[in-house]
Each structure stands twice: as structure tokens, then as C-alpha cells.
TrEMBL record:
Primary localization class, coarse: cytoplasm
Function field: Is required not only for elongation of protein synthesis but also for the initiation of all mRNA translation through initiator tRNA(fMet) aminoacylation.
GO BP term, example: methionyl-tRNA aminoacylation
Motif stretch ('KMSKS' region): 351-355
Any Gene Ontology CC annotation: cytosol
Gene: metG
Binding partners and assembly: Monomer.
Reactions listed under catalytic activity: tRNA(Met) + L-methionine + ATP = L-methionyl-tRNA(Met) + AMP + diphosphate
Annotated source species: Actinoplanes siamensis
Name of the molecule in the record: Methionine--tRNA ligase
Length: 599
């Protein structure tokens, strides 16, 4: 048994999330966590909303609300979406908690004490007419990298590169259009080159990573530069140093604070369980270096933060970069075991775009379709290792042909036949070689499917689970228990149905990490009681340190099915089943396509 940290990317709280987002980080991390728990590991799955930074401030300004109010609004929307998908977070929190501020400041101070944070004089913008500092977000100009003409002083929204305001071509104030003046100002930088050797050695010891992720990460080491970790901005975590703590115009850069969320959320989770030190079982390199594993789930645009920058912060805090140093009071911290990055999902051949309405938000999806239908599509056809296109036609086809006609049909016909003819699970008498062969296919699935999920090959894993389903459908067609009507054939009919139901039960367990909502239903149709697939809950909590209350996702996942075949009990009453999956009318394709691109 290991301690398994599932560290899931933090969705940015400036709007609702679309299905591309949850395909990359949400569903794959939940499938992995559910499987690892069923296999007996001690899983801690944490994340939250990322709520600082310029885009939220800019949008709050535009909406005439405070950044906190805007973050409150979308934090709640995102919590509800992730809840609707059944994502089993041990804690889904946010970056505006006082606990998070304290952990971020602790890491900043530790890195600073060890010499890895250095002050540098850079150019900052001021307004010539007022003489006041002009925050980065109020400066706009042409991106020096891609030529986009509305790049902001800290980032280009077109190419995604981080910028400094003085790099912009033809910079202008967004307040009054005047050209800002650049004067010298002090900021803090993370000394990334001091970690190149340590990170290189760590990457050399990585096994099993997706090769493109490893190669991309190694290449980043060739050109490491000190990276700014503070900005001219009022919305963010204050800088915890004398002379800086009370300055309202300087804040820690959002990327620095958000990536520390994995650790702060683990600390918050531990504090909420009543054992404030419990987080160390996943994080302490001294006490739990060997039996603790950390898996980080994200889209490929975030690899650099998880394979270079986060390891640099952990190494620097632990005193393990070129400059040495001492671990801070949290002790030496574990580096990631694996960075699991997905590729991009596109929509009907186009990049997702909220402004151009090439989008389907999670909330709208869940209003019209079942969560497991989306989870199935993501697992079977998502962007696991290639950029992948979501089309409504393919979604409907997979739902109808695979989920409904394959798995749903197997569940429905085996249970209804047994209910009609026996009213209960019939006993098995004298198994034939065909019976034994099918039971063995299902039993072998536990090793195959489990190993594939453990290696983050979920597409192959669900394919193997669905192969068991296909074999069982074939078996039923060949054995044709509906033809065994004669009284003398009753025993054989019961045996065939027993075997089919046992394989339904096993396939249901194999599919539980992927399809937890329907797995619970199938479990109950087979006469099971209690929790089979535990679900997260939305809980309104108080901030632990006196800040405002907020909603979190948490759950008790110690209950539920184990990763094993459980023999069915003959005599368990069965009743006629209701369909577990909904067949979709092909007309939904046209309806959904008509919604795309509507203003
Ligand atoms: Zn650009």
C-alpha cells in the first residue's frame, strides 16, 4: 500500500469551465484516484480554484465588482460542475483561503532564506499625468512574440507568453491612452538556473513518463532564466518580507501562488480531518520518501509549471539546489513521481473559444446529458496522448452504440431474464468450458485494466473493460438462455444467467472508476445495498483562520467496492431493471451544431 497524491490542475476562476478543461485534468485524475483507492492505496486527491492574477482583476473591473466577488461567483460554479461530474476530490478548495496565503508565504520565506529568491531592479510603468504606478494589466500593446495588438503588460492572451510591460511594442495605458513612462522598480525573481542540475538529475531518474513530456521538460532546462515572482498588482498574496508586507501595490505572481496550492490544499485537508500533520504522509521526503507517490494531472500547456518550476520550489525550500540551504519548518518535501499531461481537445475541428462560441460548458452539458456519457467519451476517445476532436456525431454514436447497445444492453437483458424466470439470482450448476472461459475473461480483466489505469493508459483500459462486455454479449447470444424454456432445461438456463450476471458484476467493477454513477445503479440492480461508488459532496465550510466561508468538495471514499471479483449470492432477489443509460436521438447532433456559433 502506498500513499498516493493525486494533484489535479487548478481551474482558473474567471468563468465557467468547458468540457475541454475537464477532459484534460478532471476525469483522468478521478479515474486514476478511484482505481487506486479500490486497489487499496491511501489516496489524497486535491485541487481548487486558482483565483489571483490579472485576468480576474481585469474582468472584475469590467463587471464592476471586486476580484473577490468575481472569484466567489466562479468558484461556486466550478465546484458545482465538478460535483456534477462526480469527481472524487478529498478536498477541492481555493487559493483565497488564509491557509493558502500562509503556506505560500512560508515557501517564499524558505526559498528567500536559502538564497533562491533574489531582488532585481526592473522597469516599472508609471502614468506621466498622475505619477502613480500603472499596474501591468492597465498596459496594452503589441506582443513582441506573436504580433497580437492587444497583449497585456504581463501576458499575451493570444500566444500565452508571459511578458514584461516594457517589452510591449507601442505600449499604451488602458485608462487614458497615454504612453506610460518606465522607471526603475524592484521585484523578486526565482533563481531557476540554480536548479538546472538538480532537476536534470531528477528527470534522468524518471521512468514511465510519457516520452513527449519528458523530452519537453529536458529541453526547458537548456535555457533557464531567473523568473519574476512578484508583480505590480493589488490582487494576490502579499510579499512576506519586511518593507514589503504592507505594500498594497506589489503582490506575489499568480503562477507562484497557484502551484503551491497542491501543498496548501493538502495541509487544509489535514487540518479539517482533525490531524493537522496528516498531510506529511504524502509530502515528507524524510518520513515518507519511498511509500509516497505524487501524480500531477494537467493539460500540456502547464507542463513547465509541474516538471520544472514546482520541482524548483520544492528543491529550494528543502535546501537542495546549487546554493544548498536548510529545509523550512515543513521539512524536506517530495518531488512529483509523475507529470501526467494530456493533449488538447478541440470541438468540431476548431479550438474551444468562449468568445466565438465554439464551446460547450460543463454545466450546459450536464443539463442535457448524463455525467457518465461524457465520462465515457473522455475515457474512450479523449485527448490522452494525441490532440483529439470532440464531435457531437461521435458523442452520440459512442453513447448509443457502445454505452447503450453494448454495456446497457448486457445489463438489461441478463437482469430482466433472470428476474422474469427466477425472480432472483439463480444458482450455477455444472459449469461448461464456455462458462468457465467467460468467467476467466472477466477475472483476468482486474489485472489488465488495473495495470493500464496505473500506467495512465485509460483509453486502453476502458477498451479492455468493454472487451469483457463484448465477450459476455457474445456468450449470451451463443448460449441463448431464452431458448431454454423446457422444464428439463431450467437448471442450465439458470446456470447461463448466473454466469452472465457474475460477469455483469465483474465488468461493473472494472468500469466503476470510469462510470461511477451508473456503476452504483448496476450494483443496486444486482441486489447490492449501500455504497458501491462513493460520491463527493459540496460542503459549506468556515475558513480555518477567520476568512469568509466558502464551498468545498469533499467525501468519504473509504467505503465502496474493492478492485476484485465478488461472487454473487444465489437467491438474491432481482426485479425488472430500468435502463441504466439513455439512448440519444440522432437529431441532437443538429440541435447542438445549431447552438454552436450562436451569438
Ligand atoms: Zn503573443
Amino acid at each position: 500500500m502506498s500513499h498516493v497524491l493525486a494533484a489535479v490542475a487548478w481551474p482558473y476562476a474567471n468563468g465557467p469551465r468547458h468540457i475541454g478543461h475537464v477532459s484534460g485534468f478532471g476525469v483522468p485524475s478521478d479515474v486514476f484516484s478511484r482505481y487506486m483507492r479500490m486497489a487499496g492505496h491511501d489516496v489524497l486527491m486535491v485541487s481548487g480554484t486558482d483565483e489571483h492574477g490579472t485576468p480576474i482583476q481585469v474582468q472584475a473591473d469590467a463587471d464592476g465588482v471586486s476580484p473577490r466577488e468575481l472569484a466567489d461567483r466562479y468558484n461556486r460554479v466550478i465546484v458545482e460542475d465538478l460535483h456534477g461530474l462526480g469527481l472524487s476530490y478529498d478536498l477541492f478548495t481555493r487559493t483565497t483561503t488564509r491557509n493558502h496565503y500562509a503556506v505560500v508565504q512560508e515557501l517564499f520565506e524558505g526559498l528567500h532564506q536559502n538564497g533562491y529568491i533574489v531582488a532585481r531592479t526592473t522597469l516599472g510603468a508609471i502614468s506621466p499625468s498622475t505619477g502613480r504606478t500603472l499596474p501591468d494589466r492597465y498596459i496594452e500593446g503589441t506582443c513582441p512574440i506573436c504580433g497580437y495588438d492587444s497583449a497585456r503588460g504581463d501576458q499575451c492572451d493570444n500566444c500565452g507568453n508571459q511578458l514584461d510591460p516594457e517589452q510591449l511594442i507601442n505600449p499604451k495605458s488602458r485608462i487614458n491612452g497615454e504612453t506610460p513612462q518606465f522607471v526603475e522598480t524592484e521585484h523578486f525573481f526565482l533563481d531557476l538556473p540554480a536548479f538546472a542540475e538538480a532537476i536534470g538529475g531528477w528527470l534522468d531518474r524518471r521512468e514511465n513518463w510519457r516520452p513527449n513530456v519528458l523530452k519537453f521538460s529536458r529541453n526547458l532546462l537548456d535555457d533557464l532564466q531567473p523568473r519574476a515572482i512578484t508583480r505590480d498588482l493589488e490582487w494576490g498574496v502579499p510579499i512576506p518580507l519586511d518593507g514589503w508586507r504592507d505594500r498594497a501595490d506589489k503582490r506575489i505572481y499568480v503562477w507562484f501562488d497557484a502551484v503551491i496550492g497542491y501543498l496548501s490544499a493538502s495541509v487544509e485537508w489535514a487540518r479539517r480531518t482533525g490531524d493537522p500533520e496528516a498531510w506529511r504522509r504524502w509530502w515528507s521526503a524524510d518520513a515518507h520518501g519511498k511509500d509516497a507517490l505524487g501524480y500531477y494531472f494537467m493539460g500540456k500547456d502547464n507542463i513547465v509549471f509541474h516538471s520544472v518550476i514546482w520541482p524548483a520550489l520544492l528543491l529550494g525550500y528543502s535546501g537542495e539546489g546549487d546554493k544548498g540551504g536548510q529545509p523550512g519548518r515543513l521539512g524536506r518535501l517530495n518531488l512529483p513521481t509523475e507529470v501526467v499531461s494530456s493533449e488538447y481537445l478541440t470541438m468540431e475541428g476548431k479550438k474551444f473559444s468562449s468568445s466565438r462560441r465554439v464551446v460547450i460548458y460543463v454545466r450546459d452539458f450536464l443539463e442535457r446529458y448524463d455525467a457518465d456519457a461524457l465520462r465515457y467519451f473522455i475515457a474512450a476517445a479523449g485527448p490522452e496522448s494525441n490532440d483529439t476532436d470532440f464531435t457531437w456525431a461521435e458523442f452520440v454514436r459512442r453513447n448509443n452504440d457502445e454505452l447503450v447497445a453494448g454495456w446497457g444492453n448486457l445489463v438489461n437483458r441478463s437482469i430482466s431474464m433472470a428476474a422474469k424466470n427466477f425472480g432472483a439470482i439463480p444458482p450455477a450448476v455444472d459449469l461448461t468450458p464456455e462458462d468457465r472461459a467467460l468467467l476467466e475473461v472477466a477475472r483476468a480483466g482486474f489485472a489488465t485494466v488495473g495495470e493500464l489505469i496505473g500506467k495512465h493508459r485509460q483509453k486502453a483500459a476502458i477498451g479492455e473493460a468493454m472487451r469483457v462486455v463484448a465477450e459476455a454479449n457474445k456468450y449470451l447470444s451463443e448460449q441463448a438462455p431464452w431458448k431454454l424454456k423446457d422444464e428439463s432445461q431450467k437448471e442450465r438456463q439458470g446456470t447461463v444467467l448466473h454466469v452472465a450476471l457474475q460477469v455483469v458484476s465483474d465488468a461493473n467493477t472494472l468500469l466503476t472508476p470510469f462510470l461511477p454513477h451508473s456503476a452504483q445503479k448496476v450494483f443496486e440492480l444486482l441486489g447490492g445495498t449501500g455504497v458501491h461508488a462513493p460520491m463527493p459532496e459540496i460542503v459549506e465550510v468556515e475558513d480555518l483562520d477567520g476568512g469568509p466561508a466558502y464551498p468545498v468538495l469533499m467525501g468519504d471514499y473509504t467505503v465502496g467496492a474493492r478492485w476484485e471479483s465478488v461472487p454473487l449470492t444465489p437467491g438474491t432477489p432481482l426485479s425488472a431493471p430500468k435502463p441504466v443509460f439513455r439512448k440519444l436521438d440522432p437529431s441532437v447532433v443538429e440541435e447542438e451544431l445549431a447552438r454552436l456559433g450562436e451569438a
